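> agent: user asked for a holo structure of the chain below bound to copper (II) ion. Plan: (1) validate sequence alphabet, (2) canonicalize SMILES, (3) run complex prediction with ligand conditioning, (4) return tokens. Step 1... ok. Step 2... ok. Step 3 dispatched.
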Amino acid sequence: MRFTLFTSLAAFAIVACGGDKKSAASQAEAATPAPAAAPAGAVVEVKMTGNGTSVAAFEPSKLSIKTGTTVRFINVSGGPHNVAFYADSIPKGGADALKKGMPNAMGDLTGPFLTQPNEKYDVAFAGAPAGVYKGFCLPHVALGMHIAITVQ
Ligand SMILES: [Cu+2]
């Protein structure tokens, strides 16, 4: 009796381990952001501000950077904010560069929501072709929260 109980427990444990290992690993991969490596190039900060109801903006809303620059978005007030780019408004090849440069994206060219005060999100423009990258904040696009980043 005791032996039977032990073996069935052991079998259950083996099954449970074997079955969960893969999904646990992929969950960890999906949920845990990769450790943020220090950006290699220059870092330019953009504040995300608002009053929570009628006013929201990127500050600055227009900026010019060199390719390889990291743009650091900071949730200053009136969040949640995020940054997303219009697929049809960025240069050819820009989407591929941004897919690599936007960790933990919620969707194509769509950064995660920043909900905590002073939460930051880095977009790396490594290998980004020159041109204008037009973006917006998903929660506040109706309030005109737009940004235009020119890569020189
Ligand atoms: Cu916003």
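> agent: step 4 complete. Summary for user: The radius of gyration is 21 Å. The pocket of copper (II) ion is lined by residues 48, 50, 56, 81, 137, 139-140, 145 (CB under 6 Å).
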